[in-house]
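Protocol step 4 of 5: obtain the predicted structure for the target chain.
Materials: sequence only (see below). No template structures provided, no constraints applied. The aim of this step is simply to have a reference model before the mutagenesis design in step 5. Sequence pasted as it appears in the construct record:
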Amino acid sequence: MTAIVNSAKPYLTVKQVPSRYPAFTEGSIRWLIFHEKTNGFHRCVRRIGRKVLIDLDQFESWIDEQGGAK
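Step 4 output (structure tokens):
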């Protein structure tokens, strides 16, 4: 018997991100998207028509790269 693997990438809408990452408000995510070309956040954003989705794998990598103290 073969196992079925869910290989779907995790995406959230802008409104869903704060429920998973409480340190980020919806407004702060929108600000990051507005300035995505200058802050590198463009790699986290996926657009399908008017729908804006956040790629969580890229979002977590982007957070890790922000140079804060560890």
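Step 4 remarks: The chain has four helices and three strands. The chain has one domain: 11-64.
Proceed to step 5.
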